[in-house]
# Entry
Amino acid sequence: MQLEIKFKSIAMRWFFNIFLIIAVFVTVAAVSFSVAYSTIYVERMQSLAREYASEFSALSNASRKTLYNAATGIAASFKYKNKIEVQVIDSSGEVIVTTTGFQPQDEKMPDYDKAVKSEDGTGTYKGKSASGEKILASTTVIRDANGKHIGAYRWITSLRNVNKRVTGFFMVMLAICVGILAFCALSGLFFISSIVRPIRDVSNMARKIAMGDFKSRIEIRKNDEIGELCDSINYMASELDQAESLKNDFISSVSHELRTPLTAIKGWGETAKMSVGTDEELVKRGLDVVLNEADRLSGLVEELLDFSRMETGRLSVVSQPLDISKLLGEAADMYTELARRQGIDLIFTRPAEEVTVLGDPNRLKQVFINIIDNAVKYTDGGGQVLVEQTPEEGCVRIAVKDTGVGIPAQDIDRVKEKFYKANKTVRGSGIGLAVADEIIKQHKGLLFVESTEGVGTTVTIVLPLYEPPEEPPKEDIIPPDSELENQNEKGE
# Structure
Protein backbone atom coordinates (compact mmCIF):
# COMPACT_ATOMS: atom_id res chain seq x y z
CA MET A 1 0.00 0.00 0.00
CA GLN A 2 1.62 3.20 -1.23
CA LEU A 3 0.61 6.50 0.33
CA GLU A 4 2.44 9.67 -0.50
CA ILE A 5 2.69 11.83 2.64
CA LYS A 6 2.74 15.56 2.02
CA PHE A 7 2.87 18.47 4.39
CA LYS A 8 -0.66 19.58 5.26
CA SER A 9 -2.03 16.52 3.47
CA ILE A 10 -5.00 14.50 4.67
CA ALA A 11 -2.61 11.90 6.11
CA MET A 12 -0.68 14.50 8.10
CA ARG A 13 -3.89 16.09 9.40
CA TRP A 14 -5.11 12.64 10.43
CA PHE A 15 -1.78 11.97 12.16
CA PHE A 16 -1.80 15.19 14.19
CA ASN A 17 -5.53 15.49 14.80
CA ILE A 18 -6.49 11.86 15.44
CA PHE A 19 -3.59 9.44 15.74
CA LEU A 20 -1.57 11.52 18.21
CA ILE A 21 -4.66 12.04 20.35
CA ILE A 22 -5.33 8.30 20.32
CA ALA A 23 -1.68 7.60 21.14
CA VAL A 24 -1.69 10.02 24.09
CA PHE A 25 -4.99 8.65 25.34
CA VAL A 26 -3.83 5.04 25.08
CA THR A 27 -0.49 5.85 26.78
CA VAL A 28 -2.16 7.70 29.63
CA ALA A 29 -4.67 4.87 30.02
CA ALA A 30 -1.89 2.26 30.08
CA VAL A 31 0.14 4.19 32.66
CA SER A 32 -2.96 4.84 34.77
CA PHE A 33 -3.96 1.19 34.72
CA SER A 34 -0.41 0.12 35.61
CA VAL A 35 -0.18 2.59 38.52
CA ALA A 36 -3.64 1.60 39.71
CA TYR A 37 -2.75 -2.09 39.50
CA SER A 38 0.50 -1.50 41.40
CA THR A 39 -1.26 0.54 44.09
CA ILE A 40 -4.05 -1.97 44.51
CA TYR A 41 -1.64 -4.91 44.61
CA VAL A 42 0.61 -3.21 47.18
CA GLU A 43 -2.40 -2.26 49.32
CA ARG A 44 -3.67 -5.83 49.12
CA MET A 45 -0.25 -7.14 50.09
CA GLN A 46 -0.04 -4.64 52.95
CA SER A 47 -3.47 -5.68 54.20
CA LEU A 48 -2.50 -9.37 54.16
CA ALA A 49 0.80 -8.68 55.88
CA ARG A 50 -0.96 -6.70 58.61
CA GLU A 51 -3.40 -9.57 59.03
CA TYR A 52 -0.57 -12.11 59.20
CA ALA A 53 1.25 -10.06 61.85
CA SER A 54 -1.87 -9.42 63.90
CA GLU A 55 -0.85 -12.23 66.32
CA PHE A 56 1.84 -9.94 67.71
CA SER A 57 -0.80 -7.45 68.82
CA ALA A 58 -1.16 -9.71 71.90
CA LEU A 59 2.14 -8.27 73.14
CA SER A 60 0.16 -5.28 74.44
CA ASN A 61 -0.68 -7.48 77.46
CA ALA A 62 3.03 -7.88 78.30
CA SER A 63 5.32 -5.60 80.25
CA ARG A 64 8.89 -4.51 79.63
CA LYS A 65 10.15 -7.46 81.58
CA THR A 66 7.94 -10.08 79.98
CA LEU A 67 8.10 -8.62 76.43
CA TYR A 68 11.03 -10.77 75.34
CA ASN A 69 9.53 -14.06 76.56
CA ALA A 70 6.10 -13.28 75.13
CA ALA A 71 7.59 -12.26 71.77
CA THR A 72 9.73 -15.39 71.63
CA GLY A 73 6.70 -17.60 72.22
CA ILE A 74 4.62 -15.95 69.52
CA ALA A 75 7.55 -15.99 67.06
CA ALA A 76 8.15 -19.67 67.66
CA SER A 77 4.58 -20.56 66.73
CA PHE A 78 4.25 -18.02 63.89
CA LYS A 79 3.00 -19.87 60.80
CA TYR A 80 3.53 -17.16 58.11
CA LYS A 81 7.31 -17.15 58.24
CA ASN A 82 7.56 -17.86 54.52
CA LYS A 83 5.41 -14.85 53.68
CA ILE A 84 6.62 -12.07 55.94
CA GLU A 85 9.28 -11.43 58.54
CA VAL A 86 8.20 -10.00 61.91
CA GLN A 87 10.61 -8.24 64.26
CA VAL A 88 9.95 -7.30 67.88
CA ILE A 89 11.68 -4.13 69.04
CA ASP A 90 12.14 -3.02 72.64
CA SER A 91 11.58 0.51 73.92
CA SER A 92 15.20 1.48 73.18
CA GLY A 93 14.80 0.63 69.46
CA GLU A 94 16.77 -2.65 69.52
CA VAL A 95 15.47 -5.73 67.69
CA ILE A 96 15.15 -8.42 70.32
CA VAL A 97 13.21 -11.15 68.46
CA THR A 98 12.74 -12.03 64.75
CA THR A 99 10.62 -14.75 63.15
CA THR A 100 13.55 -15.71 60.90
CA GLY A 101 15.90 -16.21 63.83
CA PHE A 102 18.56 -13.95 62.29
CA GLN A 103 19.46 -10.65 63.89
CA PRO A 104 19.39 -7.78 61.35
CA GLN A 105 22.64 -5.88 60.84
CA ASP A 106 22.64 -2.07 60.59
CA GLU A 107 19.14 -2.00 59.18
CA LYS A 108 17.46 1.35 58.95
CA MET A 109 13.91 1.46 60.21
CA PRO A 110 12.19 4.68 58.94
CA ASP A 111 8.80 3.11 59.61
CA TYR A 112 9.73 2.60 63.30
CA ASP A 113 10.72 6.25 63.65
CA LYS A 114 7.40 7.33 62.08
CA ALA A 115 5.40 4.99 64.32
CA VAL A 116 7.04 6.29 67.50
CA LYS A 117 6.34 9.90 66.50
CA SER A 118 2.81 9.35 65.15
CA GLU A 119 -0.32 9.65 67.21
CA ASP A 120 -1.81 6.33 66.14
CA GLY A 121 1.47 4.51 66.76
CA THR A 122 1.92 3.12 63.23
CA GLY A 123 4.35 3.85 60.41
CA THR A 124 4.99 2.41 56.96
CA TYR A 125 8.09 2.39 54.75
CA LYS A 126 8.45 1.42 51.12
CA GLY A 127 11.97 1.37 49.84
CA LYS A 128 15.20 -0.59 49.99
CA SER A 129 16.65 -2.61 52.83
CA ALA A 130 20.27 -2.48 53.94
CA SER A 131 21.04 -5.24 51.43
CA GLY A 132 19.45 -3.23 48.61
CA GLU A 133 16.30 -5.33 48.27
CA LYS A 134 13.01 -3.51 47.71
CA ILE A 135 10.79 -4.04 50.73
CA LEU A 136 7.57 -2.91 52.33
CA ALA A 137 7.72 -2.53 56.10
CA SER A 138 5.25 -1.41 58.77
CA THR A 139 5.71 -0.81 62.50
CA THR A 140 3.08 -0.82 65.22
CA VAL A 141 3.97 0.57 68.67
CA ILE A 142 3.23 -1.69 71.69
CA ARG A 143 1.89 -0.02 74.82
CA ASP A 144 1.14 -1.68 78.14
CA ALA A 145 -2.08 -1.41 80.13
CA ASN A 146 -0.97 1.99 81.46
CA GLY A 147 -0.29 3.34 77.92
CA LYS A 148 3.48 3.32 78.32
CA HIS A 149 5.68 2.57 75.34
CA ILE A 150 7.26 -0.81 75.97
CA GLY A 151 8.29 -1.67 72.41
CA ALA A 152 6.97 -2.38 68.88
CA TYR A 153 6.52 -5.14 66.36
CA ARG A 154 7.51 -4.67 62.76
CA TRP A 155 6.63 -6.77 59.74
CA ILE A 156 8.70 -6.79 56.55
CA THR A 157 7.88 -8.27 53.14
CA SER A 158 9.82 -8.31 49.91
CA LEU A 159 8.45 -6.45 46.89
CA ARG A 160 10.28 -8.66 44.45
CA ASN A 161 7.16 -10.62 43.46
CA VAL A 162 5.11 -7.44 43.44
CA ASN A 163 7.56 -5.79 41.06
CA LYS A 164 7.53 -8.86 38.84
CA ARG A 165 3.74 -8.81 38.69
CA VAL A 166 3.57 -5.08 38.11
CA THR A 167 6.27 -5.30 35.44
CA GLY A 168 4.44 -8.18 33.79
CA PHE A 169 1.18 -6.24 33.89
CA PHE A 170 2.92 -3.16 32.47
CA MET A 171 4.41 -5.23 29.64
CA VAL A 172 0.99 -6.64 28.84
CA MET A 173 -0.48 -3.13 28.81
CA LEU A 174 2.43 -1.96 26.65
CA ALA A 175 1.81 -4.78 24.19
CA ILE A 176 -1.90 -3.91 24.12
CA CYS A 177 -1.06 -0.24 23.51
CA VAL A 178 1.34 -1.10 20.72
CA GLY A 179 -1.28 -3.40 19.20
CA ILE A 180 -3.97 -0.72 19.42
CA LEU A 181 -1.72 1.94 17.94
CA ALA A 182 -0.52 -0.41 15.19
CA PHE A 183 -4.12 -1.31 14.37
CA CYS A 184 -5.12 2.37 14.35
CA ALA A 185 -2.14 3.28 12.19
CA LEU A 186 -2.72 0.51 9.64
CA SER A 187 -6.48 0.95 9.49
CA GLY A 188 -6.08 4.74 9.36
CA LEU A 189 -3.53 4.60 6.56
CA PHE A 190 -5.69 2.11 4.67
CA PHE A 191 -8.75 4.34 5.15
CA ILE A 192 -6.83 7.45 4.11
CA SER A 193 -5.45 5.62 1.11
CA SER A 194 -8.99 4.66 0.10
CA ILE A 195 -9.88 8.36 0.18
CA VAL A 196 -6.68 9.90 -1.18
CA ARG A 197 -6.39 7.60 -4.19
CA PRO A 198 -9.83 8.39 -5.67
CA ILE A 199 -9.39 12.07 -4.78
CA ARG A 200 -6.11 12.02 -6.68
CA ASP A 201 -7.94 10.35 -9.57
CA VAL A 202 -10.61 13.06 -9.42
CA SER A 203 -7.90 15.73 -9.42
CA ASN A 204 -6.19 14.16 -12.43
CA MET A 205 -9.54 13.83 -14.19
CA ALA A 206 -10.32 17.52 -13.51
CA ARG A 207 -7.00 18.47 -15.10
CA LYS A 208 -7.76 16.32 -18.14
CA ILE A 209 -11.22 17.87 -18.47
CA ALA A 210 -9.68 21.34 -18.19
CA MET A 211 -7.36 20.40 -21.07
CA GLY A 212 -10.31 19.23 -23.20
CA ASP A 213 -10.10 15.45 -22.70
CA PHE A 214 -13.73 14.43 -22.12
CA LYS A 215 -13.29 10.73 -22.98
CA SER A 216 -11.40 9.65 -19.85
CA ARG A 217 -13.32 8.09 -16.96
CA ILE A 218 -12.52 7.32 -13.31
CA GLU A 219 -12.67 3.71 -12.20
CA ILE A 220 -15.32 3.42 -9.46
CA ARG A 221 -14.01 1.03 -6.83
CA LYS A 222 -16.53 1.46 -4.01
CA ASN A 223 -20.19 2.29 -3.66
CA ASP A 224 -19.85 5.07 -1.10
CA GLU A 225 -19.65 8.88 -1.05
CA ILE A 226 -16.29 8.75 -2.86
CA GLY A 227 -17.84 6.43 -5.42
CA GLU A 228 -20.73 8.88 -5.85
CA LEU A 229 -18.22 11.69 -6.37
CA CYS A 230 -16.37 9.66 -9.00
CA ASP A 231 -19.66 8.79 -10.66
CA SER A 232 -20.61 12.48 -10.70
CA ILE A 233 -17.25 13.37 -12.26
CA ASN A 234 -17.76 10.68 -14.89
CA TYR A 235 -21.26 11.98 -15.54
CA MET A 236 -19.94 15.52 -15.85
CA ALA A 237 -17.26 14.37 -18.30
CA SER A 238 -19.92 12.50 -20.29
CA GLU A 239 -22.16 15.57 -20.40
CA LEU A 240 -19.24 17.80 -21.39
CA ASP A 241 -18.27 15.31 -24.09
CA GLN A 242 -21.84 15.32 -25.36
CA ALA A 243 -22.01 19.11 -25.15
CA GLU A 244 -18.73 19.33 -27.08
CA SER A 245 -20.13 16.98 -29.71
CA LEU A 246 -23.34 19.03 -29.90
CA LYS A 247 -21.31 22.21 -30.18
CA ASN A 248 -19.26 20.77 -33.03
CA ASP A 249 -22.42 19.55 -34.76
CA PHE A 250 -23.95 22.98 -34.23
CA ILE A 251 -20.94 24.73 -35.76
CA SER A 252 -21.00 22.30 -38.68
CA SER A 253 -24.75 22.73 -39.13
CA VAL A 254 -24.62 26.53 -38.92
CA SER A 255 -21.67 26.59 -41.30
CA HIS A 256 -23.69 24.53 -43.76
CA GLU A 257 -26.76 26.72 -43.23
CA LEU A 258 -24.67 29.81 -43.96
CA ARG A 259 -22.71 28.34 -46.86
CA THR A 260 -25.76 27.10 -48.80
CA PRO A 261 -27.51 30.48 -49.18
CA LEU A 262 -24.20 32.26 -49.69
CA THR A 263 -23.34 29.84 -52.49
CA ALA A 264 -26.75 30.42 -54.07
CA ILE A 265 -26.41 34.20 -53.70
CA LYS A 266 -22.95 34.21 -55.23
CA GLY A 267 -23.89 31.84 -58.07
CA TRP A 268 -27.11 33.58 -59.04
CA GLY A 269 -25.50 36.99 -58.56
CA GLU A 270 -22.82 36.13 -61.10
CA THR A 271 -25.42 34.63 -63.43
CA ALA A 272 -27.62 37.70 -63.19
CA LYS A 273 -24.65 39.99 -63.77
CA MET A 274 -23.68 38.16 -66.94
CA SER A 275 -27.30 38.12 -68.14
CA VAL A 276 -27.95 41.86 -67.77
CA GLY A 277 -29.18 43.17 -71.13
CA THR A 278 -29.43 39.71 -72.69
CA ASP A 279 -31.93 37.74 -70.58
CA GLU A 280 -34.02 39.93 -68.33
CA GLU A 281 -36.14 36.99 -67.20
CA LEU A 282 -33.05 35.16 -65.94
CA VAL A 283 -31.86 38.33 -64.21
CA LYS A 284 -35.23 38.70 -62.47
CA ARG A 285 -35.18 35.05 -61.42
CA GLY A 286 -31.65 35.39 -60.07
CA LEU A 287 -32.54 38.47 -58.06
CA ASP A 288 -35.53 36.68 -56.56
CA VAL A 289 -33.25 33.84 -55.46
CA VAL A 290 -30.74 36.32 -54.01
CA LEU A 291 -33.46 38.11 -52.06
CA ASN A 292 -34.99 34.87 -50.78
CA GLU A 293 -31.63 33.52 -49.68
CA ALA A 294 -30.80 36.85 -48.06
CA ASP A 295 -34.05 36.62 -46.11
CA ARG A 296 -33.10 33.10 -45.11
CA LEU A 297 -29.70 34.30 -43.91
CA SER A 298 -31.30 37.15 -42.02
CA GLY A 299 -33.64 34.71 -40.27
CA LEU A 300 -30.75 32.45 -39.30
CA VAL A 301 -28.72 35.37 -37.95
CA GLU A 302 -31.73 36.60 -35.99
CA GLU A 303 -32.19 33.11 -34.55
CA LEU A 304 -28.56 33.07 -33.45
CA LEU A 305 -28.96 36.50 -31.89
CA ASP A 306 -32.05 35.34 -30.02
CA PHE A 307 -30.14 32.33 -28.76
CA SER A 308 -27.33 34.60 -27.55
CA ARG A 309 -29.87 36.81 -25.78
CA MET A 310 -31.44 33.73 -24.20
CA GLU A 311 -28.08 32.48 -22.93
CA THR A 312 -27.27 35.86 -21.37
CA GLY A 313 -30.77 36.38 -19.96
CA ARG A 314 -31.50 39.33 -22.27
CA LEU A 315 -34.26 37.70 -24.33
CA SER A 316 -37.18 39.98 -23.57
CA VAL A 317 -40.81 40.22 -24.69
CA VAL A 318 -43.00 43.29 -25.08
CA SER A 319 -46.49 42.09 -24.25
CA GLN A 320 -49.78 43.49 -25.42
CA PRO A 321 -53.29 42.10 -25.92
CA LEU A 322 -53.47 40.37 -29.32
CA ASP A 323 -55.62 37.99 -31.33
CA ILE A 324 -53.72 34.72 -31.27
CA SER A 325 -55.87 33.28 -34.10
CA LYS A 326 -54.80 36.03 -36.50
CA LEU A 327 -51.14 35.59 -35.57
CA LEU A 328 -51.31 31.82 -35.99
CA GLY A 329 -53.08 32.23 -39.35
CA GLU A 330 -50.35 34.54 -40.63
CA ALA A 331 -47.67 32.03 -39.70
CA ALA A 332 -49.57 29.19 -41.40
CA ASP A 333 -50.15 31.26 -44.55
CA MET A 334 -46.39 31.76 -44.88
CA TYR A 335 -45.91 28.00 -45.42
CA THR A 336 -49.04 27.17 -47.41
CA GLU A 337 -47.37 27.61 -50.79
CA LEU A 338 -44.15 25.85 -49.72
CA ALA A 339 -46.14 22.90 -48.39
CA ARG A 340 -48.17 22.74 -51.62
CA ARG A 341 -45.01 22.60 -53.75
CA GLN A 342 -43.68 19.73 -51.60
CA GLY A 343 -46.97 17.83 -51.86
CA ILE A 344 -47.89 18.41 -48.23
CA ASP A 345 -51.41 19.25 -47.15
CA LEU A 346 -51.18 22.17 -44.66
CA ILE A 347 -54.53 22.69 -42.93
CA PHE A 348 -55.52 25.51 -40.57
CA THR A 349 -59.10 26.48 -39.81
CA ARG A 350 -59.35 29.91 -38.29
CA PRO A 351 -61.76 29.97 -35.30
CA ALA A 352 -64.81 32.19 -35.71
CA GLU A 353 -64.33 33.90 -32.35
CA GLU A 354 -61.40 36.07 -31.45
CA VAL A 355 -59.09 34.63 -28.79
CA THR A 356 -57.07 37.25 -26.95
CA VAL A 357 -53.82 36.57 -25.11
CA LEU A 358 -51.23 38.88 -23.60
CA GLY A 359 -48.01 38.51 -25.50
CA ASP A 360 -45.35 39.80 -27.84
CA PRO A 361 -46.69 39.40 -31.42
CA ASN A 362 -43.23 39.22 -33.00
CA ARG A 363 -41.96 36.64 -30.53
CA LEU A 364 -45.08 34.46 -30.69
CA LYS A 365 -45.10 34.60 -34.49
CA GLN A 366 -41.44 33.55 -34.40
CA VAL A 367 -42.44 30.50 -32.31
CA PHE A 368 -45.28 29.52 -34.63
CA ILE A 369 -43.08 29.91 -37.71
CA ASN A 370 -40.38 27.74 -36.14
CA ILE A 371 -42.79 24.95 -35.22
CA ILE A 372 -44.65 24.96 -38.57
CA ASP A 373 -41.32 25.11 -40.41
CA ASN A 374 -40.11 22.02 -38.50
CA ALA A 375 -43.36 20.19 -39.25
CA VAL A 376 -43.03 20.91 -42.99
CA LYS A 377 -39.31 20.03 -43.03
CA TYR A 378 -39.77 16.63 -41.42
CA THR A 379 -42.87 15.62 -43.43
CA ASP A 380 -42.49 13.86 -46.77
CA GLY A 381 -44.60 14.51 -49.83
CA GLY A 382 -48.13 13.21 -49.49
CA GLY A 383 -48.15 13.92 -45.78
CA GLN A 384 -50.19 16.33 -43.77
CA VAL A 385 -49.56 19.19 -41.32
CA LEU A 386 -52.54 20.13 -39.18
CA VAL A 387 -52.58 23.39 -37.19
CA GLU A 388 -55.30 23.43 -34.52
CA GLN A 389 -56.43 26.02 -32.01
CA THR A 390 -58.66 24.86 -29.16
CA PRO A 391 -60.02 27.15 -26.45
CA GLU A 392 -59.99 25.76 -22.94
CA GLU A 393 -60.87 27.11 -19.51
CA GLY A 394 -58.55 30.02 -18.82
CA CYS A 395 -56.18 29.16 -21.69
CA VAL A 396 -55.84 28.36 -25.35
CA ARG A 397 -54.24 25.19 -26.73
CA ILE A 398 -52.37 25.34 -30.04
CA ALA A 399 -51.26 22.07 -31.60
CA VAL A 400 -49.17 21.52 -34.74
CA LYS A 401 -49.48 17.89 -35.86
CA ASP A 402 -47.54 16.32 -38.71
CA THR A 403 -47.30 12.88 -40.28
CA GLY A 404 -43.54 13.12 -40.64
CA VAL A 405 -40.67 10.86 -39.66
CA GLY A 406 -41.26 11.31 -35.91
CA ILE A 407 -38.68 11.41 -33.13
CA PRO A 408 -37.01 8.32 -31.58
CA ALA A 409 -38.10 7.61 -28.00
CA GLN A 410 -34.56 8.10 -26.67
CA ASP A 411 -34.43 11.62 -28.14
CA ILE A 412 -37.88 12.93 -27.21
CA ASP A 413 -36.76 14.31 -23.83
CA ARG A 414 -33.85 16.22 -25.34
CA VAL A 415 -35.34 17.91 -28.40
CA LYS A 416 -35.74 21.20 -26.50
CA GLU A 417 -32.08 21.27 -25.47
CA LYS A 418 -29.80 23.76 -27.18
CA PHE A 419 -27.82 22.43 -30.17
CA TYR A 420 -29.64 19.09 -30.03
CA LYS A 421 -30.88 17.62 -33.31
CA ALA A 422 -32.55 14.21 -33.38
CA ASN A 423 -32.31 14.08 -37.19
CA LYS A 424 -29.04 15.45 -38.49
CA THR A 425 -29.92 14.89 -42.16
CA VAL A 426 -32.41 17.79 -42.23
CA ARG A 427 -31.35 21.43 -42.34
CA GLY A 428 -31.52 23.47 -39.17
CA SER A 429 -29.30 24.86 -36.42
CA GLY A 430 -30.79 22.89 -33.52
CA ILE A 431 -31.53 25.98 -31.41
CA GLY A 432 -34.91 27.04 -32.77
CA LEU A 433 -36.98 24.86 -30.47
CA ALA A 434 -34.87 25.85 -27.45
CA VAL A 435 -35.51 29.54 -28.20
CA ALA A 436 -39.22 28.83 -28.79
CA ASP A 437 -39.50 27.05 -25.46
CA GLU A 438 -37.86 30.00 -23.68
CA ILE A 439 -40.22 32.49 -25.37
CA ILE A 440 -43.27 30.46 -24.33
CA LYS A 441 -41.98 30.28 -20.76
CA GLN A 442 -41.67 34.06 -20.72
CA HIS A 443 -45.35 34.19 -21.76
CA LYS A 444 -46.18 31.98 -18.72
CA GLY A 445 -47.12 29.16 -21.07
CA LEU A 446 -46.09 25.58 -21.75
CA LEU A 447 -44.53 23.88 -24.76
CA PHE A 448 -44.29 20.12 -24.95
CA VAL A 449 -43.54 17.60 -27.67
CA GLU A 450 -45.16 14.22 -28.30
CA SER A 451 -43.91 11.95 -31.06
CA THR A 452 -43.90 8.41 -32.37
CA GLU A 453 -41.12 7.39 -34.72
CA GLY A 454 -42.47 6.73 -38.20
CA VAL A 455 -45.92 8.08 -37.32
CA GLY A 456 -45.52 11.81 -36.67
CA THR A 457 -44.99 14.56 -34.13
CA THR A 458 -47.31 16.86 -32.21
CA VAL A 459 -46.02 20.12 -30.71
CA THR A 460 -48.47 21.65 -28.25
CA ILE A 461 -48.44 25.18 -26.87
CA VAL A 462 -50.65 26.30 -24.01
CA LEU A 463 -51.01 30.04 -23.35
CA PRO A 464 -53.12 31.76 -20.69
CA LEU A 465 -55.98 33.93 -21.91
CA TYR A 466 -55.87 37.67 -21.47
CA GLU A 467 -58.05 38.96 -18.66
CA PRO A 468 -58.56 42.73 -18.81
CA PRO A 469 -58.10 44.47 -15.45
CA GLU A 470 -61.26 45.31 -13.60
CA GLU A 471 -62.09 49.00 -13.59
CA PRO A 472 -62.52 50.46 -10.11
CA PRO A 473 -66.20 51.31 -9.30
CA LYS A 474 -67.16 54.93 -9.85
CA GLU A 475 -67.83 56.75 -6.60
CA ASP A 476 -70.94 58.95 -6.30
CA ILE A 477 -69.88 62.55 -6.75
CA ILE A 478 -71.41 64.89 -4.18
CA PRO A 479 -72.09 68.34 -5.76
CA PRO A 480 -70.88 71.46 -4.00
CA ASP A 481 -73.19 73.40 -1.71
CA SER A 482 -73.89 76.05 -4.38
CA GLU A 483 -75.14 73.38 -6.79
CA LEU A 484 -77.36 71.91 -4.06
CA GLU A 485 -78.91 75.33 -3.48
CA ASN A 486 -79.59 75.79 -7.21
CA GLN A 487 -81.22 72.36 -7.37
CA ASN A 488 -83.42 73.22 -4.39
CA GLU A 489 -84.46 76.52 -5.98
CA LYS A 490 -85.36 74.74 -9.21
CA GLY A 491 -87.34 72.24 -7.21
CA GLU A 492 -89.31 75.05 -5.58
Observations:
- The longest strand covers residues 134-143.
